[in-house]
Known about the structure:
Blueprint: E1 9-10, E2 19-30, E3 35-45, E4 56-59, E5 64-70, E6 73-74, E7 80-82, E8 86-89, E9 95-104, E10 114-118, E11 121-125, E12 144-154, E13 160-163, E14 166-172, E15 177-183, E16 188-189, E17 195-198, E18 201-208, E19 214-221, H1 230-247, E20 255-261, E21 268-269, E22 274-278, H2 291-306, E23 315-316, H3 322-340, H4 343-362, E24 374-375, H5 384-417, E25 421-422, H6 424-435, H7 444-447, E26 453-461, E27 466-474, E28 489-496, E29 518-522, E30 526-531, E31 539-541, E32 551-553, H8 558-567, H9 571-594, H10 603-614, H11 620-627, H12 632-637, H13 644-661, H14 663-679, H15 686-703, H16 708-720, H17 724-735, H18 740-754, H19 758-769, H20 776-783, H21 794-807, H22 809-812, H23 818-833, H24 835-841, H25 843-846, H26 853-867, H27 874-885
Parallel strand pairs: 2-12, 19-20, 20-22, 23-25, 26-32
Antiparallel strand pairs: 1-24, 2-3, 3-9, 4-8, 5-6, 5-9, 7-8, 10-11, 11-17, 12-15, 12-16, 13-17, 14-15, 18-19, 21-22, 26-27, 27-30, 28-29, 28-31
Helix pairs in contact: 1-2, 2-3, 3-4, 3-5, 4-5, 4-9, 5-6, 8-9, 8-10, 9-13, 11-15, 14-15, 15-17, 16-17, 17-19, 18-19, 19-21, 23-24, 23-26, 24-27, 26-27
The structure holds (3S)-3,7-diaminoheptanoic acid and zinc ion.
The site of (3S)-3,7-diaminoheptanoic acid (B3K) has 12 residues, from strand 21 and helix 2.
Amino acid sequence: MRTEQPKMIYLKDYQVPDYLIDETHLTFELFDDHTLVHAQLVMRRNPAAGSGLPPLVLDGQQLELLSLALDDRALSAGDYQLDDSHLTVQPSTASFVIDSSVRIHPESNTALEGLYKSSGMFCTQCEAEGFRKITYYLDRPDVMSKFTTTLSAAQHDYPVLLSNGNPIASGSEGDGRHWATWEDPFMKPAYLFALVAGDLWCVEDSFTTMNQRDVALRIYVEPENIDKCQHAMDSLKKSMKWDEEVYGREYDLDIFMIVAVNDFNMGAMENKGLNIFNSSCVLAKAETATDAAHQRVEAVVAHEYFHNWSGNRVTCRDWFQLSLKEGFTVFRDAEFSADMHSRTVKRIEDVAYLRTHQFAEDAGPMAHPVRPDAFMEISNFYTLTVYEKGSEVVRMIRTLVGAEGFRKGSDLYFGRHDGQAVTCDDFIRAMEEANGIDLTQFKRWYSQAGTPRLEVSESYDAAANSYRLQFRQSCPATPEQAQKQPFVIPVELALLDAQGMELPLQLVGEDTAVQGARVVQVTEAEQAFTFINLAEKPLPSLLRGFSAPIKLSFPYSRDQLMFLMQHDSDGFNRWEAGQQLSVQVLQDLIGQHQRGEALVLDQRLVDACRTLLADDSLDQAMVAEMLSLPGEAYLTEISSVADVEAIHAAREFARKQLSQALFDLLWQRYQSNREVSRTSAYVAEAEHFARRSLQNIALSYLMLSGKAEVLAACLEQFEDADNMTERLAALAVLVNSPFEVEKAAALTSFAEFFKDNPLVMDQWFSVQAACALPGALQRVEQLMQHPAFTLKNPNKVRALIGAFAGQNLQGFHQADGSGYRFLADQVITLNALNPQIASRLLAPLTRWGKYGPARQAQMKCELQRILASGELSSDVYEVVSKSLAG
Ligand code: B3K
Ligand code: ZN
């Protein structure tokens, strides 16, 4: 907890470290009621930092200092200064050795940062600034050191002792304790340090690298989970191969380990050679994990593995550069997933997610640039903007320089900066130099916050056979940034003829026309592009593949959107046309609801969906994506003032209408897909994900009919499915249905059967928390009393409270403010237990700007109540204070 108001830290204040740590020798004595940490730091004055010998200021928090020595001379209290976050010593020579011993308490660490215990095992989480809770250190990413780590613990309870690098020695201490020493030959910052001690089993495999080196691969889990590791292992091997083929990056140690832990603040952590994972991102088998979970495991395993180069070998100079490793690595894992499965479906999922959640962040009080220039608490900046928008920025660079140019740039970047801690500017410079281009204006994507808008209009000159597209860009003000300079916006586009064929493109001044799509760069506030030699007025297909993270508008008619839905040669834009059509139709319904009129659905939406469903040749995943209407959260994001009730009513009305009008087609699709599921074994591959996703969305529409045969089919799927994807989808459909008896029975039998599997129980909590039927808050409050629930486990908090506040917009935004009050109460409790989780949970309350005056007042009142609730962590304080200032 803070003792004074947290300070803002600014990028402009960056200074190189005064001292360096060449070697770090750590010894951990792990006991059940405390841990002793001895650190020997071989240090020297940083030659880049100037002359003289300034005081050495080490970071350290919640440490009990037991002894301190400088070059073997024991220091006494008068020889150093100690406060609650620093230890200051005065060196007298340019090179010296510091020895410290501290006592810490992992057994009572509920913040899950530093060294802590999870289900009986010891583990660590050091990024961003957790290492300072382990020992006194220069806890900043530009201080890189060679680490040797010895762990000692009771052999019986902790037979497995792991740290970074390679094991070099181990032995027994004779008193029931044993020890092991690990050495990491690579220089690394402290945030990549890890240790694990526990009673774990492992699945073992190996990988032969492109230079024929054998790497041992191990996944460590609690014994009962040993049957759920194969998918993660397969994913790891695919990732290693892909990074060699696509980026030329080879793994560098003799061993690569993943450890699954139950209590973890986020998805996973890329510690050098010893990745620590939330068990939800490792464990997967058909019976207990959904298709979505299988895909998440694959993506997170890849993401953390890819960090070995984009993050570990080349790391960040300071935390403002976080997107240097995160944006780039998200881009890398997205491309990996696209290569493993359906590229178009992956892009659709990512864009839908970005638009719903990152755009909302950009429009709220916590909006910040991809490279922030100030923060109070760095943990608050592991955001959708740094990750997802950061990935879009890297994607735009690739669009601008092409795949080959991008590879040249990444080779230069990795080669030039291997072993260094660098900045986003260094990444850009490598791309510029490898491609002979100037990205100066492009870099505004790193420094300007907010989602740019691009208004496009057209004019066709029949006499001149020319077609002009006029672009106007703007970007709304964000906190701290009122005015924005124009961005470089790559717009991939094609012009289609009346059959949907791509017309040859020739801009005024060009000698020849080129067939197919091309990328134009919008760099001015207003800019026009004139295409010539067009004998008829074309229909533009704009921003293909979502070539920039912006809000583009073009005055398409609904008939044009229907045409694009069927004929655009770009799969992403076919989906996008469907989204735009659905949004227009839903916005009509929202307006009707607000005016108290009877709701009337534009039949064109029904016709469009009918055409899709009737066409057996289409990718079923695409059909499923197109049938899923834009979510309530997205409809909220694109509203200037979100009307919670109208949005829900409109969407539910459209779903019911579609269900009625398309019942037979949906029923056929459902039955034939379910038949395949029934008669074949589960496979975690794209074509099977596609079949099950269409089957499950069909079931959710069909259930709206209330027909007995659909209920019977749903119960059959729930009871007989051999995989969690089908079982959970059937459960969710039942939970959202009016069949109270069947619903209760299904919930009970599911919980009974899976009570010992915490990850499955998380799904059980989520399905109920997200159910929009009346009484949601009471259900959630009751579920908090369930024996499987605990506020101490972040997965449980996310599954129940997070799903309620983030997905159940009806329940959370109850007009009486009860949802807000509930969330604020949980944040206040969690602030003391786990500040990072408390601060993340807060996000829905910070979005008050989207709602009408009554809800705004209630939400702000809850934020005030949190602010006044006592001693706040810097995490919660920063988010609450910025939200109230916004
Ligand atoms: N680098 C970690 C995130 C650490 C978050 C610390 N609050 C996981 C990842 O992005 O790969
Ligand atoms: Zn990452």
